[in-house]
Amino acid sequence: MISSLIRDLSDPASLPDQTKSVSVIQTHISIVLVGDDYVYKIKKAVHFGFLDFLSLEKRAYYCQQELKLNKRLAEDVYIAVIPIRFDGKKFTMVGGDGDEIKEYAVKMKRIPEERLMKSMYEKGALTEDHLKGVAQVLAAFHSSALRNADIDQFGAPARFKVNTDENFDQVRKYVGVTIVPKEFKALETWTESFYKGNEKLFFDRMREGKIRDCHGDLHMEHICFTDPLSIIDCIEFNERFRYSDAVADIAFLLMDLEYHGGAPFAARLWRDYTQSAGGEAAESLLTFYKVYRAFVRGKVNSFQGDDATIGRDEREKARERAKKYFKLAYSYI
User: Is 78:39 a contact under the CB 8 Å cutoff?
Assistant: First the structure.
């Protein structure tokens, strides 16, 4: 069904807004249709343990969650959830009210790719003012994001260990493929030891009110220097990835900068953030969360390397990215 869905919706006439062309981007969980002015994101019917999009009802629900949650940091970007219908011949987002709904898409404004943090960094245009702006937005977001007794519990070491245990279990099949065996073992052992030796740090952060309903997927491709600053594509599909220490959230962005060779930028961003958020007490947790974030990206790219719906070259590129992320995780320890 995916191939026919992509084929039909690649026709500009099948989209609800006028566009001259449509390009398609796929991830391991999404199909993204990019038009001239708008983008339409469709969830794949996949199940990865931490994510379950298998039923249409679940995909509809998580589309609504994506719309709602992302308005926190990108209110003007996220517009609506649109049904995708099948008229007996093809899939379409136009008309056909009596036709059966087969999928849903989140409609967004197309943001200028040249203003993405990653693009700005790659062309040497990322400045200290940009970093300070990001730090201030994130510090304000983290201080005002939802917090309650239930969310607090996600900061407990035993609760967070569910995430790291799942990561090691799901990456085990890639040992010798995208991660070196000795490095996998070293990362697993180091993580276990960190929990045992630093339990108080986790509980201190809980008492300080630092466990919040965060973004959860904070890397350079999700930050756009529009006016106002837009931060897109938060985690909507699993609360335990979003409910976390604020430092776990920004650790993703710091890791991403370092992955791309921008360690000095990461250091400056962390300084600016701690000045705005008062996060000095979490310095000792920062390495732990950067290891976690790099390992997650290695896992996700390993998954993409197995995705038969994308081309062979793209799968191989994903495997190479996975290797690099796992190497970075190992370098932190």
Answer: no
Amino acid at 248: A
DSSP letter string, 295-329: HHHHHHHHHHHT-TTS-HHHHHHHHHHHHHHHHHH
Last-in-domain residue among 110, 137, 159: 110
In the chain, alpha helices (H): 2-9, 56-70, 117-122, 128-144, 149-152, 157-171, 181-197, 199-207, 239-242, 246-259, 263-277, 283-305, 312-332
Tokens 């008229």 found at: 87
Which residues, in sequence order, are CB contacts of 225 under 8 Å at separation 6+? 115, 116, 117, 120, 130, 133
* H/E run at residue 82: strand 78-86
> Domain containing 178 — which CATH number?
3.90.1200
At 105-163, the pLDDT tens digits run: 999 999 999 999 999 999 999 999 999 999 999 999 999 999 999 999 999 999 999 99
**Beta partners for residue 34, in sequence order:** 23, 39
In this structure, the answer to whether residues 84 and 230 fall within a common structural domain is no
Phi, psi of 203 (to 5 degrees): -70, -30
Phi, psi of 145, deg, nearest 5: -65, 155
The contacts of residue 159 (CB under 8 Å, 6+ apart) are: 153, 240
Closest CA to 31 of 51, 12, 9: 9
77 with 127, same domain?
no
pLDDT cut 70: percent of the chain above it: 99
C-beta separation of 32 from 25 below 8 A? yes
**pTM of the predicted structure, to 2 decimals:** 0.91
Say yes or no to pLDDT of 49 above 90. Answer: no
Question: Which helix (H) or strand (E) covers residue 91, if one does?
Answer: strand 91-92
Q: Is residue 97 pLDDT above 80, yes or no?
A: no
DSSP 8-state code for residue 212: E
Same domain for 99 and 123: no
Task: Give the Cα separation of 55 and 81 in Å (integer).
Answer: 17
d(CA 254, CA 244): 16
